[in-house]
Known about the structure:
Blueprint lengths: L1 H52 L10 H21 L6 H7 L3 H4 L5 H7 L10 H13 L8 H25 L10 H8 L12 H8 L4 H12 L7 H29 L3
Helix pairs in contact: 1-2, 2-6, 2-7, 2-10, 7-10, 7-11
Amino acid sequence: MRGLGAEVALRAVWRLVALRVKWEIFFRLDALFGFVGGLVQVAAGVLLFEAIYGRVQSIAGWSRAEALALVGTLAILLELERALLRGMHHLPGAVEEGDLELFLTRPVPTPLLLAFHRVNLRALWRLPLGIGVLAYAISLSPGIPGWRFPLYVLSLALSLGIYGLMVFCLVCLSFWLIRMQNLFWLVYDLSEFARYPAGVYRGAVRILLTTVLPLVVLANTPVTLLFGRGQASLLLHQALVLAGFAGLGTLLGRRGLRRYQGAGG
């Protein structure tokens, strides 16, 4: 009997070890595919601008180095959002399944808890892709004063906040809509507008992409400050956009919660 018990225990341990090995293999393969996907996306942006600048000297007044910095900055921004704020993407599922009380009963503001409850620092290992492109762009334009880098970092942080609040406003629509997960891909695709110099957008389109849908602000403003194309007052514009989306998100969140609780969620 003792031998039988030992055999059962060994089998259980073996199964646990095998399960862990499978999990690690799955994670590594998933991470590898994610890295390859990110590499392809970043490389596509770099090759696009390299091909264009092989024929022209500038695009809407932007140099090759500045355009490549846009590619790197957007890649950094999206990876930071993926690692730090991806928890907000689970709000529609929580509303649909009636599990939102798990967040409402905590002594932490619900939006913050939603945003950070699934922080995935492992996703940050793709961050060097964007940093590498940014470093290459900076190497093409030597002599950037050191004091511009803090402005760049601050502007990038504001851009991350703006992008996160845009996503939050979108997920708040789940209080009124059903099955809206596919809209996340729409927002991700629209972020491609941030990859191009602001000067290529004109008139009403430019106003739209710098205010109502401030996608151009996300990467253009940090790069503009880094390369000295604009004044530090651009940070004020970012702060105002951030405040606007914070107000809109607060309004949508409160009304959505009233609707959710009124429906017996």
